[in-house]
Amino acid sequence: MAVTVDIEAVKRRLTEERAIVLEERRRLAEDTPQAHDVVAADGSESRGAADAAETLDRGIELSLEDNAEHLLGAIESALARVEAGTYGMCERCGQAIANERLEALPWATKCIECKRLEERG
């Protein structure tokens, strides 16, 4: 079964998605956590609470950065598959990935059945 996607539209969408992710990654890098002291009810500063909040914020920021890097890699790989002429083909079984799946997730590397098998272990 041949892939019947508009390759130019796919390239445009992937390029737009890449620009969005790059901008988000830049914004995350600029948003360094600021040290904020938490003031307790009696007016004293609670450094422990501030440290915990900073640790949580930094953990979330690192997770977002990791997600952005992962997505950027997936987009770059999809663009490479477009250039190689293998875009839309399942990397596991070699069959065409359904257009609906590619529209929802243009960087998909597996057909839905192979993805399900992968997730089941």
Explain this structure to me?
The longest helix has 38 residues. This protein starts with 6 loop residues before the first helix and ends with a helix. About 6% of the residues have low confidence. It contains four helices and two strands; from the N terminus they run αββααα. The chain has a domain of 81 residues. Helices cover 64% and strands 3% of the residues. Helix 1 runs antiparallel to helix 2. The protein has a two-stranded antiparallel sheet with strand order 1-2. By secondary structure, it is mainly alpha-helical.
Summarize it.
With 121 residues, the chain is mainly alpha-helical. The chain has a domain at 7-87.
DSSP summary: helix tally: 4
Poorly predicted segments: 34-40
Range of helix content:
55-70%
Rg value: 21 Å
Largest sheet: 2 strands, antiparallel
Which structural class matches the secondary elements?
mainly alpha
Question: In percent terms, what proportion of residues is strand?
Answer: under 5%
Q: What's the SSE pattern? A: HEEHHH
Characterize the quaternary organization of these chains: single chain
Q: Which strand order do you get reading across the main beta sheet?
A: 1-2
Termini separation (Å)?
A: 27 Å
The 3D shape can be described as elongated
How many beta-strand runs? 2
Global mean pLDDT: 85
